[in-house]
Amino acid sequence: MYTMEELIRGIQGCGCGREHLCPIRTLEISGGALDRLPALLEGFVHILLVADSNTWRVCGARIAESLGGRAEALVFDTGDHVLVPDEAAIGAIVARVTEDTDLLLGVGSGVINDLCKHVSFAHGLPYAIAATAPSMDGYASVGAALILGGMKETLSARPPMAIIADTDVLREAPMDMIQAGWGDIVGKYSCLNDWKLAALIRGEYFCQTVYDLVMDTARRVEGLAEGVLARDGEAIRALMEALVAVGVAMSYVGNSRPASGSEHHLSHFFEITGIVHGQPYYPHGVDVLYSAVVTAAIRRALLESAPQRQAFDRAAWEKEIVRIYGGASQGVQRLQDRLGWNGQDDSGDVLTRWEEICAVLREAPDEAQMRAMVSAIGLDVREFGAFYGEEKIAEAIRYAKDLKDRYTVLWLAAQYHTPIGWKA
Q1: Residues of the chain where predicted confidence (pLDDT) is lower than 50
Q2: Domain count, the chain
Q3: Same domain, 290 and 347
Q4: Which of 160, 268, 271, 326 has the fewest CB atoms inside 10 Å of its own CB, making it the most exposed?
Q5: For the chain, what is the total number of helices (H) and then of strands (E)?
Q6: Which domain holds residue 65?
């Protein structure tokens, strides 16, 4: 296991042949960390602080006061709604950036972090994040997850120069956000299996060192469930460190492959269709955890049946994409037309290597184990089934793959197995 200090320093001489670097300069995860924030940001005198109504109330106002005249604040008035990281939100931040701005300081978690990360990268500005919840693994990642043209897109960016996480603040976050962070990490069992699968079937780049780092992190967090539910300070600190560590792992490989696979694509499906059709959806990491149960069921179904190449009906696919994704459907079609995977026949290679593929599929926790993990963090798979309904979950299994340019078990299931029925 690596310490956080070692991870930030990077890994040289890796067996994969790549140098793994991380540009984060300051990492502070501790009780009372916000008291040290002004000193940690010493030298910056024209700071644009970005928060929303909730995070401003939690600690944004306190941070602004502690920075005095060094900071001006942009607070998104979200009311009872969730801030969407779309073109309008990006534009609002850009409009407040001036020639004098020398730092973007986000106060929040997922959406605020992604917005500041994107704007800072686009404008060549450093940025820092004051975390308000241990809710997701993107704090230290190289990507900014945005919704552009109705599509969920992860754009290249760079990690923050500083991450400040006060565990006294984190432990008071809403429990569903804490559960989301735990679920985002435990869901790595699914995406890591997808990474191995893609390396085997598609010859994707694979790094055993990074794989082991994320796997060890998932196993460690799995054992934190009781302490996390009790809001124990040490458990919350360990969870936050795990979330940052996985973000660093993404920085190491230059994309989100070590941390995002089929379970994330299902989660993105529920989020995008929820936005398109005005329907509710769970916090990202909660959806990820529930979706990891679904992907475990998909693996089981593949292991229990003989593979048979499924024909691709372009007209039927287009009709469903338009119905499901609405205004975002053109972006989905353009992405898949560029990839050409739907009509591609790789059956010769897949069928001859089926036993190797099955060996990889067996490495992931099975469905019963994933259901037990869901229960351990105080969630109920039956609620997930009732919340979205069997029809929508079936659509996600079939069409979530089309949202991304990443090979996962969803592609294997769609191309070599009949549609999989799943029940909560």
Answers
A1: none
A2: 2
A3: yes
A4: 326
A5: 22, 8
A6: 4-173
